[in-house]
Specification:
With 231 residues, the chain is an all-beta fold. The protein contains no helices and 18 strands. It is globular and about 40 Å long.
């Protein structure tokens, strides 16, 4: 429920699952990360010093990556909340961000970050070294949200997910689509719309429409949440 005690939330945003099915959730307005077991038992929490935690990912070593939306950077913590490293600042250069959102960690270690206002995906080593980027403002394959006036974080890319083959999936809420890319950003396909038909993500024309978070299971099925109150 809404609140600030352990197991309560005020605008939870990101979810990641670590070793032993431990669940980590960014509690945006409470400026913290909370930990739970797979039955929802509260295990603890730690504060985020620079506030506004959104996207979150956990690597195979148990280190926790958190995107700080208004601090425009990524911080990495251990399970107890000790800051291990951080990088980024507001900007458009390589390794810089403008309101970063969702993140995902690949099996072979790259970290993918949705750099929302910059309309791109950035890729890093787990130590924070810049590896590459793709995307720009537009509606063509490989572009992101060419309809929402800039600067605005709601258009996309919003969240990122990976499948077992290393393909990268992104959501764009404003134009109502999911895109699939190779690991280095080559567009493979796009699907979805903001219609209210089956498979569409629409239904809220006056507010934020479209798909938001997504995940890919071991069978390759893509699960997406939408602001039209559907999965």
């Amino acid at each position: 429920k809404k609140g600030s005690a352990g197991g309560e939330f005020d605008a939870p945003i990101g979810i990641a699952i670590g070793a032993g099915d431990r669940i980590y959730i960014t509690d945006f307005r409470n400026d913290r990360v909370q930990r739970f077991d797979s039955d929802g038992e509260f295990l603890g929490a730690f504060a985020i010093a620079d506030k506004t935690p959104g996207g979150i990912a956990v690597d195979r070593h148990g280190e926790i990556y958190v995107a700080l939306m208004m601090a425009h950077k990524i911080c990495v913590d251990d399970d107890g909340g000790k800051l291990l490293r951080q990088w980024g600042q507001k900007g458009k250069g390589d390794g810089e961000f403008d309101q970063p959102g969702g993140m995902a960690v690949g099996a072979d270690a790259p970290l993918y970050v949705a750099d929302r206002v910059n309309r791109r995906i950035q890729r890093f080593t787990l130590a924070g070294a810049f590896l590459g980027k793709w995307g720009e403002y537009g509606t063509l394959p490989g572009q992101f949200d060419g309809t929402e006036p800039l600067p605005n974080r709601t258009g996309g890319p919003n969240f990122v997910a990976l499948d077992t083959g290393g393909h990268v999936y992104t959501t764009e809420a404003r134009i109502g689509r999911i895109q699939e890319f190779t690991a280095d950003g080559k567009p493979l396909r796009a699907f979805g719309s903001n219609s209210t038909d089956p498979g569409g993500f629409g239904g809220r024309p006056k507010n934020l429409p479209g798909p938001i978070a997504l995940a890919v299971d071991r069978k390759g099925r893509i699960w997406a949440s939408s602001t039209n109150n559907r999965l």
